[in-house]
Amino acid sequence: MKEYELITLGEVMLRLSPLGYERISGGETFEKRAGGSELNVASGVALLGLRTGIVSRLPDNDIGKFIKNRIRFVGVSDDYLLYDQSDTARLGIYYYEMGAAPRKPSIIYDRQNSSFAGLDLGQIPDEIYGKTACFHTSGITLALSETVRETAVEMVKRFKAAGAEISFDVNYRANLWSEEEARNVIEAILPYIDILFISEETCRRMMGMTGTLREMMKGLTQAYPVKRVCSTKRTVKSPKKHDFTSTIYDVDTDRYYEESPYTDIDVIDRIGSGDAYVAGVLYGLLKYDDPMRALQYGNAASSVKNTIPGDLPSSDLAEIEGIIKNHNATGYVSELNR
Amino acid sequence: MKEYELITLGEVMLRLSPLGYERISGGETFEKRAGGSELNVASGVALLGLRTGIVSRLPDNDIGKFIKNRIRFVGVSDDYLLYDQSDTARLGIYYYEMGAAPRKPSIIYDRQNSSFAGLDLGQIPDEIYGKTACFHTSGITLALSETVRETAVEMVKRFKAAGAEISFDVNYRANLWSEEEARNVIEAILPYIDILFISEETCRRMMGMTGTLREMMKGLTQAYPVKRVCSTKRTVKSPKKHDFTSTIYDVDTDRYYEESPYTDIDVIDRIGSGDAYVAGVLYGLLKYDDPMRALQYGNAASSVKNTIPGDLPSSDLAEIEGIIKNHNATGYVSELNR
Amino acid sequence: MKEYELITLGEVMLRLSPLGYERISGGETFEKRAGGSELNVASGVALLGLRTGIVSRLPDNDIGKFIKNRIRFVGVSDDYLLYDQSDTARLGIYYYEMGAAPRKPSIIYDRQNSSFAGLDLGQIPDEIYGKTACFHTSGITLALSETVRETAVEMVKRFKAAGAEISFDVNYRANLWSEEEARNVIEAILPYIDILFISEETCRRMMGMTGTLREMMKGLTQAYPVKRVCSTKRTVKSPKKHDFTSTIYDVDTDRYYEESPYTDIDVIDRIGSGDAYVAGVLYGLLKYDDPMRALQYGNAASSVKNTIPGDLPSSDLAEIEGIIKNHNATGYVSELNR
Amino acid sequence: MKEYELITLGEVMLRLSPLGYERISGGETFEKRAGGSELNVASGVALLGLRTGIVSRLPDNDIGKFIKNRIRFVGVSDDYLLYDQSDTARLGIYYYEMGAAPRKPSIIYDRQNSSFAGLDLGQIPDEIYGKTACFHTSGITLALSETVRETAVEMVKRFKAAGAEISFDVNYRANLWSEEEARNVIEAILPYIDILFISEETCRRMMGMTGTLREMMKGLTQAYPVKRVCSTKRTVKSPKKHDFTSTIYDVDTDRYYEESPYTDIDVIDRIGSGDAYVAGVLYGLLKYDDPMRALQYGNAASSVKNTIPGDLPSSDLAEIEGIIKNHNATGYVSELNR
Amino acid sequence: MKEYELITLGEVMLRLSPLGYERISGGETFEKRAGGSELNVASGVALLGLRTGIVSRLPDNDIGKFIKNRIRFVGVSDDYLLYDQSDTARLGIYYYEMGAAPRKPSIIYDRQNSSFAGLDLGQIPDEIYGKTACFHTSGITLALSETVRETAVEMVKRFKAAGAEISFDVNYRANLWSEEEARNVIEAILPYIDILFISEETCRRMMGMTGTLREMMKGLTQAYPVKRVCSTKRTVKSPKKHDFTSTIYDVDTDRYYEESPYTDIDVIDRIGSGDAYVAGVLYGLLKYDDPMRALQYGNAASSVKNTIPGDLPSSDLAEIEGIIKNHNATGYVSELNR
Amino acid sequence: MKEYELITLGEVMLRLSPLGYERISGGETFEKRAGGSELNVASGVALLGLRTGIVSRLPDNDIGKFIKNRIRFVGVSDDYLLYDQSDTARLGIYYYEMGAAPRKPSIIYDRQNSSFAGLDLGQIPDEIYGKTACFHTSGITLALSETVRETAVEMVKRFKAAGAEISFDVNYRANLWSEEEARNVIEAILPYIDILFISEETCRRMMGMTGTLREMMKGLTQAYPVKRVCSTKRTVKSPKKHDFTSTIYDVDTDRYYEESPYTDIDVIDRIGSGDAYVAGVLYGLLKYDDPMRALQYGNAASSVKNTIPGDLPSSDLAEIEGIIKNHNATGYVSELNR
Prior knowledge:
6 copies of one chain form a homohexamer.
Chain A: E1 6-9, E2 13-17, E3 29-35, H1 37-48, E4 52-59, H2 62-73, E5 81-84, E6 93-97, E7 106-110, E8 134-138, H3 139-144, H4 146-161, E9 165-169, H5 179-189, E10 195-197, H6 200-205, H7 213-223, E11 228-238, E12 241-250, E13 255-258, E14 262-266, H8 273-288, H9 291-305, H10 317-328
Parallel strand pairs in A: 1-4, 1-8, 2-6, 4-5, 8-9, 9-10, 10-11
Antiparallel strand pairs in A: 2-3, 6-7, 11-12, 12-13, 12-14
């Protein structure tokens, strides 16, 4: 058994958001939170009961310390955090504003030249590669800087070589890189990926695939040695009301796993709900190696994350299993946990 | 005419709830409120214009003083509050977290060994029994401790003997006592009850009754000298959207009173909405002795309570009557009270 | 080209509202904002990119200074603010409480004897009349006091004489004056109005007109030299969910301009959404002299204002045009501005 | 024994103050509190354990209801509150900003034409005059309006006639009336006063007296049938650090009562500390008829009030007696109440 | 080398405190923090760079989870936290109110029957005793319940037997047990203590010792095998202004270590400053085995803790060393860390 | 007469500070403010009644819009704000934490690569140079980037050529550049400076001067065509208590202007108090060309700024003159502005 069941790699940012429905351009207060796709994943898995850590790089000052403390608060090990003591050390920031129909939620990024963008392979301790059962990162990390990209790709290879399963969330962001640039990089690492998260739209547009979603998912496992492909389906009825479900294709059983969608989710904060899905799925696969349970955990974890302020999930196993049970319940269900 | 139109008996707790949709397990602030079923009832009736008091027991310290002040703030007399000066004096607490689909609201109780749980009949001034037109308590009070149960049962008998009407809300809580224990106690006091509040589910499960709701309601008046039975019907579309209505069966007229439900209630805080119903009904009965008006007051008071943060109602008579009027309006209705 | 594209005349008040769904009668904090129909209009137009100012009168103290600063904050010139240094100087106030079904939003006004109510023509610098392309005021201003009414009517005439277009929003408020009083005053200024905002209900009840809305709108342009009549249609599904659209009748083209409604608007704060409509329409007319664009700007500006806390709009041109584009979009639309 | 030990007469206002050291002209939030000299006195006496009420007049709306609830919250009876249902009903307001050297605290009043200013003798129920052992009002009340002045003077006479002791705090405010106007009115009611509160500066400037403070105090009891004269001495080292003590002259014993000052009081909110002094003195006189104890209660109540946010005191008897004990302690004193 | 440098044993409570200078009996919000003497110590040492853990017992619910997360947030391992799943599980609470002269800070405890009070030796994993270089607990733990006392005493013996240094802070609290009861228990464990923290007053009153402080400190090392005795000296000029220093007596060198006091400390929150002292001293001893450095770390850590809201320290090594450096500086010192 | 009396050049940053005495590394909220030395100066002068503008460069997004609105809020013209529409546009940030003895205030800067750092002369409209009576910038601006330095130096020359007085605050910051680098640049622009602000310590260390302060001040006017040299003297008794005064040397009169210090200033927020001094002095010189009045305005403006939260001043002329009057008062001074 490895020391960690999951290690992730990614940038952790300071998230600044106005209170309630206030605007970035007004008000006198910002909520101050930590967030970042791969931290969200590591935290989601940790809350469900597995031991997780994150590789990230923070400025060696008080705002970096804030992030470190939040990482610990959500149950993720800080053993592989790196600290940037240079004069140019800085923490990436993003500003987030909630939406209300017909106003969409908005994000402004200020993450260039962050300490994480200078993460170099040489800074990572060699011992790490043998420490985990699974390694996860995302397309965001690959897009942040040339340095980080090289670091990440090499880490994927080393973890793979050391026997870890590799999980990867494509998470294509048009504001970070072009479709072509992304496609080239992602195609280069697909040979190392075991568990792949990709949306239908990204399959079509960035990857240039055609056919039904199911055909594209299976196609990816045929072109590459990917064992599971997971794809979420979110229906945005309004900024405050979503439906959500997903599909997992599993090579071994050659089956597509699905369940009825969660409907009329009360969206309090949709940021991180995709990462919560990844966390739920990884938990199901790492703990039970069962795609159907993974799907259920993923859908429940993602749905309930939408109701939690901030990027980070806060649901433990009992809560997630309660939500799955309610989702499948047919008779009387109490409206209150007492 | 009596000095009070209503005296209630019950525990008042400190309610601690995180802000907005935050979790009990996170955040840095708690809203600090007072609440308790029988205080909520006394306050609802007081706001509508009748003179009410509460018998309760508080620790003789600053947190007890907070509760006393809040009781006065909501218009209920503090003349029958008792103060516990012992070393073990404490105020019961409950933690409350809001829900948002698919997350349910949650409550954690920390009320054991409270000062109220030590309320002994000997502490109650004898003069009280002749002071009120109506006395109200609930099944929660009966379940809190052996001492309180004996006190409450004896108080019911003494108020009855002194000529007060007795109102009782079964309010069965599975986390406080078993169905069998509850049934035995409640059957023992039903001979003293004039106005009974009971849900359909409690009739079936705890009381072990069968038949339609109407049959069970009438059955209770046949088995016991109860004069009015009131039963609410809440439809939970989501934690933030409910429908609500109720039925009153009146022995004298042998009629069932009902009205069309309030629909699409925007639930801000559902705690205390059942108590607000009791308050509305008691106001209607105490002031007008008219089951139909009681039903209207009860339904309106309960519906609007759902929109008020905290356990305690805040609607005066003008507001409740405005809501009833809108509920029954057919033509143009202004969207704004100006 | 004039120095200002729009100058408005109106009272600016201090708005005090409890946090969230709290009540005016409870809580310990008020949000402190500036608001007033004609400031809302001037600000909406300024945010879209035109130069605007407001004629108003404030007490010469720190609370007046707060208002002055907020006026500048929202991009409106303070060059024509007047300061009342008398002993009786005061700022009008209104208290606002949000609604949630079945509770309506409520407003309590405390604006009598405000410094604005003493605004006298002699206080206005003569130079102002030649400075603007358009002048706007509303029926609220006419209703505030005898002094203000005379001032406003005379200003309408002088601006008209100096070549400005005159815009007027009837905005009938039954709590300020009677229908008869309002009708007399408004009929007296209609000969000077170029752009008229009036609701269907006001046409019927206060103006005593009959026929369809379209007939009444056209009728007004036949009885008076009004060039454009604009009428909004708000459907209140609940205090938190509205639909919204409008009609503009244009004399020159003899056409009625309309578009499909904005539906299921998430209402965070509906105050000022009518003024945002006026601002959008005025922007469209002043910038493009195009009733269809004016209609689109007005509907979008009003819809999105409902999602902004406070009276004042906060949407710039890019946001409004994004909302119009989404409203008319047919294919895939991103749920997030990134 | 009378039903009340103290009834006061005075205006209760809404106090709006920015958070912390923010300015009235900035920020986005106001603290919302109730305050008014005579309410502060009634509340201070009630907290110490005597039964008190207040005669005041509030607008019959939600902001008036807020004040009514706060009055009850602080333990004062609302039985003699009057409600103004007219169109012009309004609550007086004052804005308060804290000081920090070299910035002084600031107050802006907006209390003209309040509902209280229209308080007419005819509105007061006749029964009230026999209900109390003591009646208290202040020079502020006399200065508010002609109507209120006549009402107050007549009430003083009627309470006196009914056997109540009359307490009066001169509390001269130059922004409300001239020295001459004040002197005339106050000289007219001095024949009815038993307990008089007056500062040295007011003796000299407004009353035109000369000599030492002691001479002036005694002089007042020689010119009028006043039995006790109380005069406070506040030394303002900085807005955040005061010293405080007082002198009471008692006719019966022909003695001056004094004690060593409270030094280095940490001033959190100095508003209402003068009223807290009056409350402490009245408690001492009403309960024990002992000028020395009255002096101690007054000095302690005033000193500790400076540490309490808001106008209203919050100290019960145990706290005041603890403070007196510490003030006189010589040996080891715990730094913490545990 | 051991896995932990320090393990502590103690109760962790929920601390509820009103905002700013508000009172427990007023206001609508509580700050929600974690605190407890031995957690404060473990956290202080962890922040300075050593690996620490805590043995405590929490209710297995969301409020227990809050505490667990805060423990991790401050850098202390949660590996030895125990969870109480019984029906009576509860978290101890204390209410804290700040002081301002002449008002003292106040604490109300509500910690009886907490899950920690039921901590039984059998719940502690046997492996723990060999895991740490040092074990620390306090007299508070010994006073909480019979069960906890037995557990703690036995743990002291087992850790001692396994080779850990034993640190003990007498921390006598008169509200928890009598002097006699305390003396008996503490005398029974003194044979196992290596590092002892005790105040002069406790030496005299609870331990019944006489002589100078230095004589009493040395006397304890003569009567028992204690190697270092540490005693703090706090001078309370006002609730907001303290001086602080301490003495350490070291048996090996037979010397008393002292330094000039920190003067005019701006006390924001004095709770936990004694624990911060213990943490600083333990860090100095565990890291450098140097009583003088231990004294400096202790005095600096305690002084600066007074400026930090909440029980828990937040100073890392760089900050503490900066404070020591300033304390000893003679020339120009920048007023700002930039 | 010019359109502006003062135009400044400088970076405006987002300032993020935890509430009260919380730490950057903890808490969940940041206060969100605008600040920057030259904005602070422009705002201080504008509040005193002169027309001012600022040349700065902001990202063209919502966070830039926030800054723009704040600039207008404090009365400074936004006519010369420039907007950066590039992908790398960002706003400089600084984190600020308050101090309390023995904890110093702390600042963390994150301002590298800001939009302002890319400010190029070509972006500045040529018309600006003739528009103002005075131009002000500081050594911070010169230190930010090579580009900005060149821009600033050239702007100094062009404003000088166009007839403006040049004001310059050396404001040496060791974290931005070395002493040598600073000296070279500043010596190069001293030939263009009319009004110079420099501290004694900077004279000695960065400029390498010797002698008394007075000798160094005069020396600067002899080596360069500077007409007035101003030097402040701040005595930091604790982070919360300062004394302040200054010296101005005037070439024309060959005199040193001084006054007795403001003592025991209650420091709420010391950031920007140096800039407030500059603003007061510039106001005095621009309005009255009187060094003594300038000194008084400067000292008063600086002293009172310390009591205002945030970087930006908020004192108008009446307040500053009141503070000067109190500072020089000898007899009775009211403790309250009523």
